[in-house]
Amino acid sequence: MSAIILPKHLDIEAKVALMEKDARFEVAADLDAERASLADPAEEHIRSKTGPAKIPKMFLASKCVFNCAYCECRCGREDRLNYCNSPRELAELAVKAARQNGHGVFVTSAIFRDSDTTQEMLAECVRIMRCELGYRGFIHSKVMPGADPLLIQKTGLYANRLSVNIEVAKSEGYARIAKQKNKTNILTPMRTISNLISHCKAEGRSFATSQTTQLMAGSTEEDDRTILDLSQALYRVYHLKRVYYTAFHYTQDARGYEEEHLQKVVTPYWRMARLYQADRLIQLYGFTPDEITPESQPNLQQDMDPKTAWALRHLDQFPVEVNKADYEILIRVPGIGIANAKKIIEARKYCTVTHDVLRKMRISLKRCVYFITCNGQYRGGNLLFSPDLRSYLAGPPEQLSITASLVAGGCG
Ligand code: SF4
Fold this sequence. Notes:
single chain, TIM Barrel, two-stranded antiparallel ribbon, disordered N terminus, binds iron/sulfur cluster
């Protein structure tokens, strides 16, 4: 293993402070968008669980040999104060942070020297955490683009979760904004992880149990239909636990991209929140990507959540009788989510469900009243087939209209 020379002028506190700053460029940004989507009061009918726990991200090294245009860690940023840790130093810092946080830790890195060197150091870091420091909690480790399968295996022996960032929604995007990355050096490790997870599970061998990835919206001028199609293919082919969506930001000219004529752009934050909502509808509610973003409407809407937008495109399927509808139909009703559908089906065993019964069950009628009948009674007035219904249901929640202060990017 190559020894790392630590910059003498950076003490541990200074490095931790820089790591916290760099953590903005990783999955944390996605979790903030996801939390915003869950905080959307109009979104109760899409929610099914509480938001994900946020865990600290600890970096092995901050200066990369790759040159991704959108990333603060890219090579050629001489104006940046960089740092690096030895595997043992990172292990000690990560265990301390994980124990303080209580939910786990994410160990990651920019590419130091090359992918294999960095991966070997991350593998050694997680080994020290488990075998020498006795840490038993959750470890998520990044896998570098093109990393050797044996090094992935070594890392997964001690980590619970592994991830490789796919970043772009169209493969031609690599040449445009991340020149050293390509389909092969991203998808090959993803496939290796997927195969190792299933083989090790079948053979009872110790290995990570899940894999995630990060996908930037807005990096290739793609529409949301393209993003959702890709993420569903990733879930299906590589059995991913999660796809995290992050906003593409390009606000500072990057050396080496002069010929690409990249436009300065900041993908709006609301788009990420809507992508998380769409993702949940597909993963948990049985919608297909085509239902959420049909060819005729390939983008999600800022002022309307994707489930309500779907309902407005399918008014012929409403109103739904709550005393008869199957669970799969009930969860598609705007204003009725998984928890409320279960409550309704349970209540049907004992009584006829009326509007008053729904209120007593603390199910808000604000949205669903236009889409349901209760024992044949419809209380949505004349709005169901009126053009005014859309304006009743539209309106960007405050949380979604803010512009992200976070800068997109990623490491590894
Ligand atoms: S995104 Fe990752 S690979 Fe690309 S420059 Fe940043 S740290 Fe390096």
